[in-house]
Amino acid sequence: MRILYSGLWYALMPALFLRLWWRGRRAPAYRARWRERLALGLPRQPGHTVWVHAVSVGETLAAAPMIRELLARHPATPLVVTTTTPTGSEQVQKLFGDQVLHVYCPWDTPDALARFFRAFNPALVLILETELWPNLVAAAAARHVPVWLVNGRLSERSFRGYHRFRALVRPMMQRFAGLMVQTEAEAERLQRLGAPAERIDVTGSVKFDLQLDDDIRAGAQALRSQWGARPIWIAASTHPGEEAQVLAAHRQICAELPETLLILVPRHPERFDEIARQVTQAGFTLARRSSGQPVAADVQVYLGDTMGELLMLFGTCDVAFVGGSLVTLGGHNLLEPAAWGKPVLSGPNRFNFERIAELLEGNNALITVDDASALAVAVSALLADAERCSRTGEAAQAVVAAHSGALARVLATLDQVWPQRPAGREN
Hints:
By secondary structure, the chain is an alpha/beta fold. The protein has helices at about 1-25, 35, 55-75, 85-95, 110-120, 135-140, 155-165, 165-175, 185-190, 215-225, 245-255, 270-280, 310-315, 335-340, 355-360, 370-385, 385-400, 405-415, and strands at about 50-55, 80-85, 100-105, 120-130, 145-150, 180, 200, 230-240, 260-265, 285-290, 300-305, 320, 345, 365-370. It has two domains: about 15-205 and about 405-415, Rossmann fold, CATH 3.40.50; about 215-400, Glycogen Phosphorylase B (Rossmann fold), CATH 3.40.50.2000. It is built from 18 helices and 14 strands. The strands form two sheets. Strands 3-2-1-4-5-6-7 form a seven-stranded parallel sheet, with helices on both faces. The chain has a seven-stranded parallel sheet with strand order 10-11-9-8-12-13-14. The two termini are about 30 Å apart. Pathway: Bacterial outer membrane biogenesis; LPS core biosynthesis.
């Protein structure tokens, strides 16, 4: 089955390059560093490394506290951190600079993975969340390199997709050395896919261990002090089909609370200019974060068109809506505004964060809205009632505090399995 899978990868490779070129129309970074996708021209490392694979910005931010701890605990072991998107790459470089080795993750073909393993010689592979690649896991197993899933999550929807290809997926799952997952539900789904029960450990989500450092707090406080006491809400990580609903909701909110400012942060940077046009065409006055424009009293929408600042921007608002949830994409991280003690709103589609949503709802800390009108009503009610707004935000923050500790459990396990190998290279 894996031979057929590999053959499909090779057959689709022209289409994959075409897709990179196509996406590069709006985000030129997709057309750069294409050789890394094939693991060509990689710098050969003299000894062993540990490979940490995150996908994009969200996984990188979730993994950042773990990576910092690993760098501190094991300074003699180089870390290779891979992503698949330019935005993830930018985040790694911004957070860690030359503290880690960073390249794009190679496509899941046997020859690309062989070149990657020869170049970096990993002695341990750590895969974040749901990056399940059959050839990657098989390549590691063939070299006797343990692979661990960290902060693993698998929605019911993703499970059904993997289960259709269980002849390919089951051998992969059996090759994992260990799987540290967020919930019992994920543990059960992975076991049904073939992961041995004795190798699965429910550690919780490291997203609950989010740290708001002094720089982030100071940045949020500085911005908020510039904007004064006006009501502010944020619509974060929005996708096509959501911005129009958010702007419709903002129009309704402004009719009731005219001084309200909306911070709008689209998920993908290649859409920033498009959304700026959409805002002005809707008749709103706009300021863009990237231009350094001041947010005067008449500015109605502030476009967060920079990378890596969303967590800070959450600290400036009174109410937070998290996107990817009014469209069928499964939602985004609800814990970032919760960690700030902000009331959290979401659409109904959040299967990527179902357990986190359940915990917040169970503590009356999450409000679900189905459309623009419901979003406007919920935001307006919170902005108009400071006591309720504060109470809901405190409830959200309490959920984050109550479920922290996953990072410590993950690190304790990794300390036990950390490779103890000589500095020489295996050929």
